[in-house]
Design brief:
alpha/beta; D-Maltodextrin-Binding Protein, domain 2; 2 domains; 6-stranded mixed β-sheet; 5-stranded mixed β-sheet
Amino acid sequence: MRRSHERYATLGMYAFTEAQQFAWQQLFDHFCEFTGVDSTQIALRFEHDPALLLEPGLWFGHTCGYPLMMRLRQHVSPFCVPLFDVPGTDGRYYSSRIIVAAGSGIESIADSRGRVAAMNNPDSNSGMNVLRHAVATVHDADRFGDRFFARVVNTGGHLYSLQAVTNGAADIAAIDCVSYQLIEDWQPELCTSLRIIGDSVMTCGLPLVMSNAALAVTDIPVLIECLNRALATCCDEVRDILHLTSFAPVQMADYQSIVEIEEYAVARGYPELN
């Protein structure tokens, strides 16, 4: 992937379609107007590679809380979180929908023992960490060892995990609830082939972050105010496409539960999703 030293922002975590990317671009353009920044001088990028958050050209970026807490926190810090109005969210907090095929006999996490799980990425809170936690709550490591599933498929994305369950390549997956809603808006027929058997534990939503050095010299309340003013300026269609309601301040401590979820699984004898 090309690396750039030019200034940019990344908003690719919830931008599956051209319509969603266009909506984020509209929001970003309004935000630049309120902050007095020339939007033509700052690229809005929709990749979601965490390595982009370490480049010197970063203004701010959207990321998952798991890589933030596990390997990025020495370099970047969260300053706000987008809030969404979709099933599975509660203010700043979100969960994952635990899905199986509509015709599956799986009714609970315990029923999926010995089956095939799909995860979007081993570096994911919503696709790996919370699913590992859900398994750890029912897994008896003393009796069954550290393996729960017959196999875990790394699909590379929430959409691909959904597809893996619908086409029979996997039996169960955990899908970020915002991603699930955005995919359902886009491909409703895909989700009609699925059944939600529960929601994961909740954690703080995917944050916007900037480098620690930049954060130290940025008026964060003003930045968040500009984001909310930009969202209010957007047309209803943009807000509806994104299911976005506002931006709220957050700190690193708000993401500590992600670490605690991992520690719980380790203490239960289930350190890896397998």
